[in-house]
UniProtKB/TrEMBL annotation:
Keywords for this protein: DNA-binding, Methyltransferase, Plasmid, Restriction system, S-adenosyl-L-methionine, Transferase
Domain of life (superkingdom): Bacteria
Catalyzed reactions per annotation: a 2'-deoxycytidine in DNA + S-adenosyl-L-methionine = an N(4)-methyl-2'-deoxycytidine in DNA + S-adenosyl-L-homocysteine + H(+)
First-level EC class: transferase
GO molecular function, one term: DNA binding
Protein name: site-specific DNA-methyltransferase (cytosine-N(4)-specific)
Keyword S-adenosyl-L-methionine: yes
E.C. code: 2.1.1.113
Length: 390
């Protein structure tokens, strides 16, 4: 009996070794620069969002680790990983603190609302020529939005609110309006937070809104895959519990916020105000936000270590044994010092019993932009693949 058990253990060990070698071989055969990338699916550009990774990146990782179980992205952002999981016939779970990110993801991964274009036309027809008595409680609103633009946005929001009981339709309409807010504001661009004079009128708000609805509608209709279930948790990842999950997780594919790099809350600041969210609450808990690194008792790389430690506490409780995690992570610059965040994640992971399967450097597209110019000098990022050994 002992001999049989030992033989079974030996065979299982050999099987796992062969599988690990196969995983490494598959990873090594991928062109991580994606130089011959196919044209991006229109669903990827539903709404402006900073530092998105291209669909091929999570798709390649999910294909490699596919065990038929749901995929988790604990920092879901605009939902690229979740959408790619759907595209490959898998269920997915995503977590994000940013309400605009969650709205984008919901629309990307949900069914196309019926009569969307007709409802949008009706909204604009009702909104044009009428006024609102609503008093706005948005900081510096007159600096960033002309009075007639404010009025047009308010009446559109009021008309959209009439569809709140139809969640899918309501989400698409709100996302459409959100997507044009920078364009109709005095803000120079999505990546330049400065006020400039623009020749924009209330009429442009309505026409841009209709165009945004049409763009999203066309993108949603272009999906050719079955919309598998996506569970989206709008919360701080460090506060999510295993009980919040409907099912066990088969793999983790994510790109966590880099310390002192992208300002997600700032990028969507006025979108959040307009849609009724508080960006300052998002800023307070957002991992990596630059403001945390320039205040009294400023954050350091040690804070990131503890944040990733908390993330692995969650992953430990939901990921199946021998499951893989893949982190796409760049370097940060904090007070002139370059921090290799992959080293931090690897150190945290090792203390949770994970072993490294692969560590790959890939080139970041030079067109990537952010609110932190110093970050633009960092040209590569790391794909770190780890395996749970429990």
């Amino acid at each position: 009996m002992v001999c049989v058990n030992n033989l079974n253990l030996f065979e299982e060990s050999n099987c796992n070794l062969v599988k690990d070698l196969d995983i490494k071989s598959q990873l090594n055969n991928i062109d991580w620069s994606f130089a011959n990338r196919e044209k991006a699916h229109p669903i990827e550009s539903l709404h402006p969002y900073p530092a998105k990774f291209i669909g091929e990146l999570p798709r390649s990782l999910i294909k490699t680790f596919n065990n038929g179980l749901p995929v988790l992205d604990p920092f879901a952002g605009s939902g690229t990983t979740l959408m790619e999981a759907q595209r490959l016939g898998l269920e997915a779970v995503g977590i994000d603190l940013n309400p605009i990110a969650c709205l984008i993801t919901k629309v990307k991964t949900s069914a196309t609302p019926a009569k969307l274009l007709e409802h949008a036309d009706d909204i604009v027809m009702s909104a044009q020529g009428r006024f609102s008595e609503l008093e706005l409680d948005i900081p510096n609103i007159d600096h960033w939005f002309k009075k007639d633009i404010q009025e047009a946005i308010v009446v559109l929001l009021e008309e959209i609110q009439k569809f709140k009981d139809d969640e899918g339709l309501f989400n698409v309409l709100r996302l459409s309006l959100s997507s044009i807010l920078v364009k109709v504001s005095n803000q120079d661009s999505d990546t330049r937070y400065a006020a400039v004079e623009k020749n924009i009128t209330a009429k442009d708000v309505f026409s841009n809104f209709l165009n945004a609805v049409k763009k999203i509608h066309k993108s949603l209709l272009a999906r050719t895959w079955t919309l598998k279930d996506v569970q989206l948790i709008h919360a701080n990842t460090l506060e999510v519990k295993a009980e919040d999950f409907k099912k066990d997780i088969g793999m983790v594919v994510t790109s966590p916020p880099y310390p002192n790099a992208y300002e997600y809350w700032l990028y969507h600041k006025y979108r959040m105000w307009w849609l009724g969210f508080d960006p300052l609450k998002v800023k307070e808990k957002e991992i990596g936000a630059r403001a945390h690194f320039f205040k009294k008792n400023a954050h350091t790389e040690e804070n990131f270590w503890h944040q990733m430690d908390g993330t692995f506490d969650l992953i430990d409780n939901v990921l199946v044994d021998k499951g893989y995690t893949a982190f796409v992570i760049g370097r940060s610059k904090i007070k002139g010092k370059i921090i290799d965040n992959a080293d931090i994640i690897q150190d945290v992971a090792s203390q949770h019993g994970y072993t490294e399967t692969a560590r790959i450097e890939r080139v970041i597209a030079s067109k990537s932009k952010s609110f932190n110019p110093s970050y633009g000098n960092i040209k590569t990022e790391t794909v770190l693949v780890l395996q749970k050994q429990k």
